[in-house]
Amino acid sequence: MIKILWADDEIDLLRPHIIFLEQKGYSVTPVVSGTDAIEACSNTHFDVVFLDENMPGLSGLETLLEIKKAQPALPVVMITKSEEENIMEQAIGQKISDYLIKPVNPNQILMSIKKVVHAQEIITEKTTSGYQSEFMRIGTQINDSMSAEDWQKVYNNLIFWEMQLDEAGGSMDEMLQMQKTEANNLFAKYIRKNYEGWIESGKHPVMSPDIFKTKVFPLLDKGDKVFFILIDNLRQDQWRIIQREIGGLYNFDSDDTFYSILPTATQYSRNAIFSGLMPAQIRKMYPNLWVDEEEDEGKNLNEEALIKTQIERFRKKFTFSYNKINTNQAGEKYNESVKSLLGNDLNVVVFNFVDMLSHARTEVKLFRELAPDEAAYRSLVQSWFRHSSISDLFRILADHKIKIVLTTDHGSIRVKNAIKVVGDKNTNVNLRYKVGKNLAYNKKEVFSIVKPDVAGLPCPNLSSSYIFAEGQDFIAYPNNYNYYVQYYKDTFQHGGVSLEEMIIPVITMSPKGN
Question: How far apart are CA 433 and CA 311, in angstroms?
Answer without folding.
Answer: 31
